[in-house]
Amino acid sequence: MFGKKKTVEQQMRDQDRQLRRANREIGRDRGKLEQEEKKLEMEIKKAARSGNKQACAILAKQLVNLRKQKTRTYAASSTITSVGAQTKAMHSNMKMAKAMGTTAKTMGQMNKQMDPQKMSQTLKQFQMENAKMEMSEEMINDTLDDVLNESGDEEEQDSIINQVLGEIGISVSGKLNNVAVPNSELGGERETEDFGDIEAKLNALRTPAD
To answer: Which residue range is the domain that position 81 belongs to?
Structure first.
């Protein structure tokens, strides 16, 4: 009365134990009926050999009733087994329902914590900030390209050319066509070739690199 209330699992175990005990008792009763059935069959045969028809009729009636009772024990055992199976199925359904209830509760708590509108705004803000970052990166890259490709490169090229001209003794302000050429034919051809090579080198230096 004052004991702790049993859980569903404990009640299920107790019920299953009781059903199995009842089934065993029915099985023992059926065994006794089968023994009695064999005795009646022997008595009927004995009465038939002695020609006692009245005894045979009475014993046959008892045998019929006994076999009916034995059939009832089979039906009872089948019912008990079915009840046990149904009880286990109900218990399984209860477990599934409980698990689904727990899952639904958890999902409800998660839904309360999740704000779809807020999440959508956060994602939109992320997209905007990401687009701004990409634009800023592109602008910075363009600015760096402009800075690195300034006209100072041309001035550096002119300085190199002037240095080369100074090394070979030609004035920067002078022109190749104004350089004096010796009258000697052989020397003139050699000087012309030399100046031609110098002019080609100068043109190569003046041409911007790709």
So the answer is: 8-115
Report how far residue 113's alpha carbon sits from residue 22's, in angstroms, rounded to the nearest whole number: 53
Question: Do 37 and 102 belong to one domain?
Answer: yes
3-state DSSP assignment of residue 133: helix
Q: Which residue has the tokens 């899952």?
A: 103
Per residue in 95-128, pLDDT (tens digit) is 888 888 888 888 888 877 777 788 788 888 888 8
Identify whether the C-beta of residue 80 lies closer than 8 Å to the C-beta of residue 22. yes
Q: Are 160 and 205 in contact (CB under 8 A)?
A: yes
Domain count, the chain: 2
More confident residue, 12 or 199: 12
Is 0.70 topped by the overall pTM? no
pLDDT at 207: 58
Structural domain contains residue 172: yes
123 occurs within a structural domain: no
pLDDT of residue 64: 92
